[in-house]
Each structure stands twice: as structure tokens, then as C-alpha cells.
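cache lookup: miss for this entity combination. No prior model stored, computing from scratch. Input as submitted by user K.M.:
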Amino acid sequence: MSIVKNVACPVCGTLCDDLEITVDGNRVIGTKNTCAVSEAKLLNFSDPGHRNLKPLIRRDGEMVEVSWDEAIKRSAQILAEAHYPILYGWSCTNCEAIRMGIALAEEIGGVIDNTSTVCHGPSILSIQDVGIPTCTLGQIRHRADLIVYWASDPYSAHPRHVERYTAFSDGRFQHSEWESYVARLRGVLGKKRLSRASELTLMKDIPLPAVTGEKLPPSFRTGKRKLIVVDVRKTRSAEHADLFLQVEPNKDFELLQALRLLVKDEELEVNEIAGLPVHLLEEVADALIGCSFGAFFFGVGLTMSSGKTRNIDAAIALTQDLNYRTKFVIMPMRGHFNVAGANVVSTWQTGYPFAVDFSEGYPRYNPGETSVVDILSRGESDAGLIVASDPVSNFPREAARNLIKQPLIAIDPVASPTTVMADVVLPSTFVGIETEGTAYRMDRVPLPMKKLVEPPETCLSDEEILRRILKEVRHLKEVRGET
Amino acid sequence: MKVTLLTGRTIDQGTAKEHGKLSTAYFENVAVCEIDPDDMKTLQVKENSTVRVTTEHGKVNVRGRTSKRGPHPGIIYMPYGIWTNIIVDPQTHGTGMPSFKGIKAQIESAPTENVLTLQELLENLFGRD
């Protein structure tokens, strides 16, 4: 039995690198410093109930086991014969595999897109439009005295983000507000108990406090670190916050623009914006201006709702406006552990971060046209290669339907609706558990992913599988005299 | 009842995913819809009974649950997953991103109907399981 320290977590974009994993033989038997999702992954990854262990090919409607050589040849044949194949996924593998995938996309004249297309793709478009004032998470941990999570629920999607980098982290100049939160929680629980007791004994409701308060809480009059959550419902993260602002669905753009006006000392000639009283927003604008170092973190609540890219434009513009008055930064809450790496590798190899089309022989980028959901919705592609992703689950119905109409290759360590529907399944290893490599944290800091255990003998790394497919594609093209 | 559909992550969906998407845990934590407590009463939905969610892009049966994140009247919340994504708005408005949040929807109680498992749904939608 051994304990591996400083392990980077292969789950979300926070990429916590302080995990301590207990390994016995070739099994993970214990974890420390993990969140619930990370622990579930590390303790269950090798469960044979959902693990892909053998290469499979669909024959007469049935999936049958084949040799690696046969599975690679079939995959290469599908891709070499296709006129407009798509290569999608990439956010749950390492940068080395992504680099190999881009070489393959170029060789076969396909479209390579990563999961940011249905995550923070609109954020990237916005950053290209208006720039982004940002920094690393370490700066925020040590210096930020006002944190805003907008349309993001780190408790559910990035469970250790608050603890490691923001309100509950102990930095050099700012300190954890964990104890204040516990005291506040006790107060809320007391009120809930009182309300319930009143219901039972007096048959009379004592109303609980409104979800969104009418004014800033007393903590905003202290020099301590403050946390604001803006969301369409009171998430668990909102319960951690000093102030929660419940915005009406699809009204984030209005609220952001209203705050921009207030930050510029303009007056709003209405009483309410996006369901929130203007006098409260005036106090919020004062709090934003009054901090020493503020940090916005925004989630896909902004990119997936009405306005999409324009919501991010407004959020970045608000950050830029605030920088005339104080210091403020902004950062997208990236989802999968290496989705930022997928953008970084794609940018350094092709010039573009996602939705890159090689069909003309050179990289072209035009999201809306060259992004996979649009290509699939229009039914334009004729083959698919999916790496470490599950678009059959994650894409809208018509896009998923068109994806499985065409020959589909899935490279994945685990079974998913996509591997169930695929024509070729290539069992890969888990990056960060069975294979090492590089991944990029949400602030684009690269971190090494460790190998903790030996992979099953029948599984290969994503990089090795892609290398073999690329070699076979080149061989097929040589035979046909296409090179 | 007319509602606004939001989809997103939940911690239960995140952990259940790591037990495998074909697992019972995943089905139980993802094929669900969180409904405002007052809307549950209006719709006469019992905890964990079937509700039908319909958008202009499709309809799906899931289990209705009282939202612990309420009050949010007129808003329903479904975790990311295939049950949700077959009814979201595929329109990307030139960004590559479909509209997964803030979708107009209709919800009604359907206590006598089943919630399809993932395998049944794949068979139903795409003709394979």
C-alpha cells in the first residue's frame, strides 16, 4: 500500500492538485482532499460494470470483440473514406492526445471541435471580441476581497473551488470566511426551526426571510472577504453567500448592463431590473466599486441562456468599467478538467480554439457554421470520431440522431450512450489515473496529471490509439495514391 | 402549467455519472425534474411520481421532485442528461451553443405513465439499445 501525494484531480476545471490517493497493488482504495465527484470517480473508475475493456465493432447490428489491429484498421477506413468527418470531445484527455487528434483532423480534412462548443464557446467568442481582464487563481486566493459567482453553482460543478481559491480559502492577504458562514447558517437554521414549530403548534406560518434581501447585509460594512452569488434560483452555493441576487431567467444581460450604468454613476429611471429592486442594485454597485480586488466567476448560466455571447460581452464590459474605479478580474468556470487545454492546444496548433474545419486543407474557424452541433443539425458530416465525451447524451435530439446515422467511432474508457450507439468502440485508459500527461486548469495554468495505477492490458491511451489510427490513415492514403 | 425550463449540474448527477451512465444511480438522479413546492401542489404531483415536460422540441417523462432550492415559481430544473437534452432548443444563434437554459416549457402530472430508462430511451429515439 502506498500514498501518492500532490495528485491533480481528473474531474473538473478547478484541477485541484493536492489530492492524496492510497493505492494498494493496482487499486485505489482511499482518497483524501477529494470532493464527492472526484472520490466517486477515483473509487469506481475500474468497475467492470461500466468499463470498456475490449475493442468492439458492430457487425449485423451486434457489437463483437475484435483485435486492436482490426479495430484500428476499421476506424482508419471510416475516416479515410469520409468527405466531412467530425472529431469531437477532447476535454477529458491530455494535451498530448489532443495534439495527435489535430494532426489526424488535418490528415483527413475533418472538423475538430471540443466540448467548449457546448460549454464556454460563447465566452471564447466574446473574449475574442472584447478581450478579458483576468489573472491566475492564486492571485484571487491571496488578494480578492470580493468574489462574485454569476450563473455558476460551484458547489455542484466545481465543489472545491470556493474552498481552494475564493471565500473559504486562506490566502496571504485575505482569510477564509468559513466561520462567518457557519454562524450565518446557524441563524438560518434557527429561523427555519422557529417557522416549523410555529406551523405545528400555532397553526400559523411565520414567513421565512425573502430569498433576496432588500439591502446589503452587515458583513459588507466590514473589511472581510465577501461573497455574492447571482443566479436564477437559490443554489447551494447561494446559501454560502453574504448576498444572493435572484435574477429572472434570461435577464442577465439587462442586469449586467444596469450595473454598468450604476458603476458609471448613471441613474436608472425604473424601480426594478430583472426582478431586483434598483435601490439594492445601487448598493451592490457601490460594493463592487468599494472593494480592493474583485473577481467575477461566470458559469454556463450566461452562455446557455438568451443572449449567449452578448451576456459575456456585458460581463466583461462591466469588469472593464470597474477597472476605472478599482481592481477587478473575470474568469469563466471551465467544466471538464482539460477543456481549457483543448482550447490551448487547438489554438497553438491551428490558430483557433475550437470548431476548426480542415476540409479546405487549411484551418478555418466560423462557429455557427463549423461548430459540430450546427454541422450535425444540418446533417452535413458523414462520419464521427468521439474522444472521451458523450455527445449522444449531451447534444440536442436532432444533432444526436444525425451523429449516429453515420459511421461512429468512440474512444472512451467507460460505457455511455455514445459507446452504446457507436460502430467502433476503442477502450482507452483514464488520464490522470492510468495515464500521465498535461492538463490546463481553468486559469490556463498547465499541471502534470499523474499515473496512479497500471491500466488493463487490453486498453491503450487516447494518444496511442490516435497515433495508430493516424498511421493507418496515412498508409491507406499511400496505397490509394492520395499522398 | 407553463414554466421556464432550466438545465444544469447537480452534485448527485455528477457523482452518479461516475458510477456509469447505464447505472441505476444515474437514472434515479438524472431522470428527474425539480419543481417549486407551490407548483407541486398546483400540479397535484406527488413526490417522485411521473411528470411530462413538453417543449416545442419534444416531450419527455421524468420523476417530479420538490425543489430544495425554492421558491422559484414557474421555473423547473432538470439535471444535464439525455432525458433533458432531447427537449432543449437546438438553435445556436450562430454561436455553436444550443439553448440549454431558459426554455419555454409545459409541465403536467402523468402519474400513470412510465419514465423510460436510458436503454429504453435510446431504443425509442434511435432504434438501438
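stored under new cache key. Chain A has 19 helices and 21 strands.
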